[in-house]
Each structure stands twice: as structure tokens, then as C-alpha cells.
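Entry 14. Two folds queued back to back today. First construct below, sequence then C-alpha cells.
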Amino acid sequence: MVLRVYFISTTGRRDIRKGQIHVFSVLSSWKYDYEAVDVAAPENETERDFVIVTGKKSEDGKVVLPQIFHEGKCCGDYLDFLDAIEQEKLQLFLQTISISEGEAKDTIPC
């Protein structure tokens, strides 16, 4: 399983910074293996281009970080992540289990 969180280390927006910290905190507490990719780092230019092309866009057409990907497929952004937690469907959101397994397991404790 390859879980990647695309984030930006140079943001001045407090909401983005808090969202990134929350994503990292939840994934770490659930013991998910993930790779954090800083799209602001010059060596990650290819990764930045990838997330711009394939990431979820906001209403104004821009990619808002953090973005979560599983095996190269976009799971969603921070708001989608929050919704998954609130609906107790984090594993389904992260695509670590299938929909049929999610129905069988019922809910995920928070």
C-alpha cells in the first residue's frame, strides 16, 4: 500500500497548515504508513506537477493542499478527509479496504 500526502511547507495560510498537521496526526495515530511529499521543495517539481494535474480541484479550479493519494489515485483533499472521519469511513476513504469490506465491518471507531 502506497499512501502519499502532498503538502506545502511554505504556506502562510493557517487553515492549510492546521489541516496538514491534522492529516499527519490522524494517519500516524492509526499507524498508517504514508509518505509526506512537500510540493514546495525544488526536488519535488515532478510530484508538484503530478498533484496539479491529477489532484482534486476546488470550485475555482485550484488544487488545495493537503491532497491524499493511494497508489497514485486521488482519495481527496482535507475536507474529504474530515468527512470520512466524521462518517467513520476513513478506511474506505483511504481505499485500504473495499466497499464490500466496509459494509461488513460496519463502522470505524474514532
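Second construct, same run, same settings:
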Amino acid sequence: MTNCAPGDTLVAKGDKFSLHQCPKNELEKKDMERFPMPRQYLSNPGMDHWKKAKWVMRFLQRTKDYMLTYCRSSHLEIVGYSDSDFAGCLDNRRSTLGYIFMLVGGAVSWKSVKQTLIASSTMEAEFITCYKTSNHGIWLRNFVTQL
């Protein structure tokens, strides 16, 4: 990572990955062997996955001096946002849920994960996300009120 060039964005709009993007020949496998460090963390090192791993390294190089900052405040209000996609995974059609909770303008809790259930509609995927986000939001609120 110390020698990579800085990059601008982490994920481009429309990026999709699937199990069908594995290396297809020896040349692609040899190309990935030149960079052993990221390879050990990829469960399916396809060429598109590999390019994205190098992209992540460039993004981390550019943002290594960034940090979360929090302001002192007597008003501790938790604000949460959530979203989900419907059948976004190309391999198993599972939806992805994501949420973030902010306190005094800074992120304090976030998550992005594939849903364990296969939703049959966009509304069902959003409902599952709303339920899980609400549960975590209630836990955070109780935690903050006990501080």
C-alpha cells in the first residue's frame, strides 16, 4: 500500500461482482500472483475482484490521513439512515441492507451486509432493513441514555 498511487473513489456506481468472474486462464492467475497481500483476503479472486482490491488500496492511500471527528454537545440525538437493494447479489439474488447512525454529526455505528432471507419483493427487502435498523437504533438510544 505504501507504494500505490492515490485513487479518487472507492466504488463506482453500477459495480457488480459474481462468482463467474474467476480467472479464466493461466495469464490471469499469474497476473494476480504478483500482488500476494490482497489475494489472501479474497475468497473468490476473479480479475474484476482483483482490480477492485487494487482500487481499494489506492483509495486507502489517498484517505489515510482522514479521521472521524466529534464535537462536544449536551444534546445527544442519534440520527439513523438505512437502505436496501432488492436481489442485488448476482449469485444468490439476496438483498443487501445497510444503515448508519450518527451522533453529533459523526458516524458512531454502521453496517452493510447481505440479508439472510431472500426477499420476494422490494417492499419485503425494505421491511427487513427497517426492522433490523430499528432494533439497532433502539439499542443505541438506550446505550446513550445510560451514559
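Quick look at the second one. The first helix runs from residue 26 to 33. Residues 36-41 have pLDDT under 50 and may be disordered.
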